[in-house]
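Supplementary Text 2. Reproducibility record for the structural model of the 130-residue chain.

All settings were left at their defaults, and a single model was retained for analysis rather than an ensemble. We include the record here because the model underlies the residue-level annotations in Supplementary Table 4.
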Amino acid sequence: MRRLILLLAMLFLPVLSAELPPSAYERMQAAATEVVEIEVLRVEIEPGEAAGSQNIRLMALVNKVARTANVKENDLIKIGYTVTGREKGWTGPGEIPILEERDKTLAYLVKDPATDEFHPAAGVMSFRNF
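Retained model, structure tokens:
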């Protein structure tokens, strides 16, 4: 019986720490069409559709361009995403941080052609490097 419990614990232990590995975030960062340095000018937070979720809308100034298909320096861009409050002990990919006004940060983004709004491209690592 002890061996069975030990075997089950070893099998399910990886499930309990389900954060994505760094290589997954590195791939998402590499796939981002926009890699820019931004300054956040405005932050709007509204209740999301799901319980405990928030819709985040940022207005940001592009200060520097590292890689781009759609923007240039001094452009104003809109960035939108949703965050969900998780219960204590929840495991899974990290949550995208909510930036604050006047934050200056690197951003890995993709553009939604339907709305002309940008979205974080690398989950929790969308606004920072390793």
